[in-house]
Amino acid sequence: MTSSMRLAEMKAEGIAKGKADIILNMYKKGYPLEEISDIVDKNIEEIKAIIENKEAILI
Question: How many domains does one find in the chain?
């Protein structure tokens, strides 16, 4: 893997983590899943998976 490919991969991972953090914050503040989905442009199943995955890590 070239350094530019690795850099692009790291950037994508950072963006994904940032979106996951936004999703979790919105969920904790009581936003409905439909609204979260609309704002972050992910489907509700993806939103649920992120929430469930992060909650499992915290336990």
Answer: 1
